[in-house]
Specification:
Length: about 110
């Protein structure tokens, strides 16, 4: 999901990669949505505001540490106040649809 917060143009290939990875996870679409905007977003959205934002990606261990650090401070307030949510919702919505398709549209994954 951090792909959405890199300082690069998000391509269809990037979205498909995230969708495949998320589809393979045990999380429902609602849980993935919460993770995107309550955990990943608060930790990595500042990268989009940086003059020299990260564009190559982060190591998995760094991602885990940063999310845990940020999650303790921001908790769920970012989900409601997230200034990037409307912008992200467009491409993230595409990823959610692909996840549902990859999973065969099972009802338990509905938002």
């Amino acid at each position: 999901m951090t792909e959405f917060y890199l300082d690069t143009e998000l391509t269809d290939r990037d979205i498909a990669y995230v969708a495949r990875t998320c589809a393979a996870s045990p999380y429902s679409l609602a849980e993935l949505d919460r993770i995107m905007f309550c955990e990943v977003g608060p930790a990595f959205a500042p990268n989009l505001l940086s003059m020299a934002g990260e564009w190559a990606g982060w190591r998995e261990e760094f991602i885990k540490e940063r999310i845990l650090q940020t999650h303790r401070r921001w908790f769920y307030a970012f989900y409601v106040l997230n200034p990037f949510k409307r912008f992200m919702r467009l491409k993230w919505g595409t990823a959610l649809r692909q996840i549902a398709e990859l999973r065969g549209g099972r009802k338990r994954n509905a938002l």
